[in-house]
Design a protein that fits this description.
Elements (H helix, E strand, L loop, with lengths): L7 H19 L4 E13 L4 E3 L5 H8 L42 E6 L5 E8 L7 E6 L9 E3 L23 E2 L3 E6 L1 E7 L6 E15 L36 E6 L11 H15 L9 E3 L5 E3 L21 E6 L10 H17 L7 E5 L11 E5 L1 E3 L16 H11 L3 E10 L2 E9 L8 E6 L2 E6 L19 E7 L3 E9 L8 E10 L1
Parallel strand pairs: 11-14, 11-17, 12-14
Antiparallel strand pairs: 1-10, 2-3, 3-9, 4-7, 4-8, 4-10, 5-6, 5-9, 12-13, 15-16, 18-19, 19-22, 20-21, 20-23, 23-24
Helix pairs in contact: 4-5
């Protein structure tokens, strides 16, 4: 009896299934199941009434928080989470007291008992005319102090063409979300003129069946730089983001939210910010590419790949071809920790080196439209800036004082530098070639090719006739070629330039290579 030959339709279906299986091996696969996620509920304001005379002193005190002058914590070493007093003023920052006066034309509303929530914000159809204040009731029944909710008009996706896929179909304006961890009530105070256009946004943690981020099967063995916490570690929701051409600029932010959080609370803080940005503002993901906590932990923010020029929503008009790094906390008056500043320097140094950018140089960056620079204006900027340098905002608060030191320390994390020319396969062999060197030394450095988690090393000591002209003073023998025998199939292959001392390795690139 002859074995029947599959029809053309069956063959096509089998080929399609094989292709899908191959594709899933390359891409991050959403993890479906029950997980703790943060969800945002948009609700109307509670019943509002005119502010009473007895409330005015407390409300005014919340607006009159003074900004102290201080000196920047050292970031050459990381041994403490404390901060030190500073000596310089905060250039370009609003300097509270701001002159805002609380009057009886404001209204207050209270919801003293609601289901527990972890973060609160206010969403508006138009920009508020006066400050927005809130206080919350903790799970033990006590009420906290009034505090202002910052409104970031310069945070959001790029408004003009060139910024990838369109984002932003949520509220036109919104305060920064305030992390409260486990509050059970809130009280809101704002202008009677702003109240009709406002609504409350409460973020709650819940166990739901959902799709969360998962590391791709092929990329699971790729080494992570300096122990960065990936999105899977904070329970990020699976999203889709846009990719730019390169990274030219780093923009530093603060979250303008609570400084009172433990290391264990950081994943919840990140989930609440992602929920607020996605469900409240209508953005495709959390705004920032990387997040740093006050303990020095570095976290992957917006999805798409830490090694790629992912377009964020952190600095309107300056998102495309930049990287946004945010420090969790309100540093309007408080000082950042040395550990946080060191980690900001480290992740920026690594990211700029990855895209072969000298952190000590400057760049002509074309604005796509912010509150400070109209679309099309070319701004000459240092490679590392605070948010206020590209938008009309006080962000990143006192961290702005540290930008110069961050830029200097970044250079220590920026080496080695290199370029991957190609990864190829032939006759059961995977080969990689390119160049790499350490700007602090003329000696060759070690380059590693990592295939499915297995390391193969060589030296960058090969002659490159094309190299001397572009890198005068460093000789002409910094090329490398690495080869390794592997079996048939698809192999995740990455090439890393190893740091000789004091910094981090530089990832030169990754590819999925088919060996036949």
């Amino acid at each position: 009896m002859k074995t029947p030959i599959p029809s053309g339709r069956v063959v096509r279906r089998l080929a399609a299934l094989f292709g899908l299986a191959l594709l899933l091996n390359f891409l991050p696969v959403p993890r479906f199941g029950f997980a703790e996620v943060s969800v945002l509920n948009r609700i109307g304001l509670p019943e509002m009434s005119p502010v009473g005379a007895a409330e005015i002193p407390q409300l005014q005190a919340a607006l009159d928080v003074e900004t102290t002058t201080s000196s920047v914590p050292t970031i050459s070493t990381v041994s403490t989470t404390s901060s030190v007093p500073i000596t310089s003023t905060l250039p370009g920052l609003p300097n509270p007291p701001s002159g805002q006066t609380v009057t009886e034309d404001r209204v207050t509303g209270s919801a003293g008992k609601v289901n527990e929530f972890s973060a609160i914000g206010v969403l508006l159809d138009e920009a508020p005319t006066e400050p927005i204040l809130v206080r919350v009731r903790s799970s033990d029944g006590t009420w906290g102090s009034w505090r202002e909710l910052d409104v970031e008009a310069d945070e959001g996706p790029d408004a003009t063409a060139g910024g990838g896929a369109a984002e932003g179909n949520g509220a036109a304006f919104g305060t920064e979300p305030l992390w409260v961890e486990d509050a059970i009530g809130y009280e809101l105070n704002l202008s009677s003129e702003d109240a009709p256009a406002a609504e409350i946004a409460l973020v709650r943690d819940a166990v739901e069946r959902t799709a969360t981020e998962a590391i791709s099967v092929a990329g699971a063995a790729v080494p992570r730089p300096f122990g960065i916490h990936m999105r899977t570690e904070w329970g990020a929701r699976s999203t889709s983001t846009s990719v730019g051409a390169t990274v030219k600029l780093a923009v530093v932010h603060h979250s303008a939210s609570s400084n009172d959080y433990s290391p264990a609370a950081v994943p919840g803080v990140l989930r609440s910010i992602q929920a607020y940005h996605m469900d409240g503002r209508g953005w495709s993901d959390i705004a920032y590419n990387f997040v740093v906590d006050k303990y020095g932990g570095v976290w992957e923010g917006r999805g798409g790949g830490i090694d790629k020029p992912i377009i964020g929503a952190h600095a309107m008009g300056f998102n495309t071809n930049s990287v946004g790094v945010m420090v969790i906390g309100d540093y309007t008056a408080a000082q950042p920790t040395a550990a946080a500043l060191e980690s900001v320097s480290q992740v920026i140094g690594w990211k700029l080196a990855l895209h072969r950018v000298d952190p000590a140089s400057r760049v002509g960056f074309t604005s796509l439209g912010s509150t400070k620079y109209a679309a099309g204006v070319v701004v000459n900027l240092p490679r590392i800036v605070g948010h206020q340098q590209v938008g009309l905002t006080g962000c990143p608060g006192s961290i702005q004082n540290a930008i110069g030191n961050i830029a200097k320390r970044t250079q220590d994390w920026a080496n080695p530098v290199g370029k991957l020319n190609a990864i190829t396969s032939s006759s059961g062999m995977i080969s990689a070639s390119g160049w790499a060197y350490d700007p602090e030394s003329l000696d060759p450095i070690v380059v590693a090719m990592i295939i499915d988690g297995q390391w193969f090393t060589s030296w960058s000591n090969g002659y490159r006739s094309d190299w001397r002209a572009n890198h005068p003073g460093y000789g002409d023998s910094h090329g490398f070629t690495i080869g390794a025998k592997v079996g048939k199939g698809v192999h995740r292959t990455c090439v890393v330039a190893r740091n000789t001392a004091g910094g981090v390795d530089t990832m030169l690139g990754c590819q999925n290579i088919v060996v036949k």
